Amino acid sequence: MNTGLNFQDADGFYEQLLDAHLGLNREQSEFLNARLILLLANQVGDARVLQDCVAAARQTRELPAA
Fold this sequence. Notes:
This protein is mainly alpha-helical. The chain has one domain (11-59). The protein is built from three helices and no strands. The protein has helices spanning 10-20, 26-44, 47-59. It is globular. The two termini are 27 Å apart. The mean pLDDT is 90.
């Protein structure tokens, strides 16, 4: 699993992600997140890498400070 910065425009992607949630209620926003996760997981494709990513994400239990 690659934990280093591995895409070209992190800020642009983050802005695009925030914009995708505009006007959605909580349920719609959660559905969007779930669908996006599944689409990205399909792009990764490697079950071991996905397992490592889930484990790494689960290790962080607190939200970062704003």
